[in-house]
Structures are given as C-alpha cells and as structure tokens.
C-alpha cells in the first residue's frame, strides 16, 4: 500500500537569541543621589567620572551607565 514518507527536515538549528531590549521601565525608586535644597529634595544625577561634568550616567536597576563612554558603575545593593 501507500508508503507514507514524511520528509521533515525543517528543523533548522538556528537559535534566535533575542538580547533583552532596553525596555522602558521607569518604575524604580530614585537613587540616593539627591540633596536637600532649602526644603526641596533635589535629585542629583551622577556624572560620569570619565567624561566629567555634563555627562550624566543613565540610571539602571543596579548600575549607572555612561551613554558616552559606557562606563558602568555598579551600585551596591547591600544596603537596607
Ligand atoms: Zn563617560
């Protein structure tokens, strides 16, 4: 009778690696970089130690990253 041959060779070994996109999540407590100005709480942005003034570090969950030279400063999360 009919011989059924299933030629299935559609399993390409291609592993798609989706690097975690930089989701725009902005739900985190502000970091401790702030000062009291008068009776106002002013947040201070961390400047890049490499690039100097004017270059601020992007705030991430547990680190700061300079968008210019990509210096990363890990924040110590051992603080509670
Ligand atoms: Zn920098």
Q: Which class of secondary structure composition applies to the elements?
A: mainly beta
Mean pLDDT score: 74
Strand content: 25-35%
Uncertain runs are none
Large-scale geometry: elongated
Largest sheet: number of strands, sense, barrel closure: 4 strands, antiparallel
Helix and strand string, N-terminal first?
A: EEEEEE
- Count of DSSP strands: 6
Describe the secondary structure blueprint for this structure.
Layout (H helix, E strand, L loop, with lengths): L33 E4 L2 E4 L3 E2 L3 E8 L3 E4 L5 E3 L6
Antiparallel strand pairs: 1-2, 3-4, 4-5, 5-6
The protein binds zinc ion.
What can you see in these coordinates?
The protein is mostly beta strands. It has a domain at 50-80. The protein is built from no helices and six strands. Strands 3-4-5-6 form a four-stranded antiparallel β-sheet, with no helix packed on it. Strand 4 (52-59) and strand 5 form a beta hairpin. The protein starts with 33 loop residues before the first strand and ends in a 6-residue tail after the last strand. The mean pLDDT is 74. The structure holds zinc ion. Residues 48, 50-51, 55, 66, 68-69, 71 line the site of zinc ion.
For this entry, give a set of tags.
binds zinc ion, elongated, 80 residues, mainly beta, 0% helix
Give a quick summary of the entry.
The chain has strands spanning 34-37, 40-43, 47-48, 52-59, 63-66, 72-74. It is mainly β.
């Amino acid at each position: 009778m009919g011989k059924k041959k299933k030629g299935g060779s559609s399993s390409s070994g291609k592993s798609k690696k989706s690097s975690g996109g930089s989701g725009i999540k902005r739900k985190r407590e502000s970091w401790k970089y702030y000062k009291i100005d008068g009776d106002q709480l002013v947040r201070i942005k961390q400047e890049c130690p490499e690039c100097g003034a004017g270059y601020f570090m992007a705030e991430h969950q547990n680190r700061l990253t300079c968008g210019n030279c990509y210096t990363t400063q890990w924040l110590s999360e051992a603080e509670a």
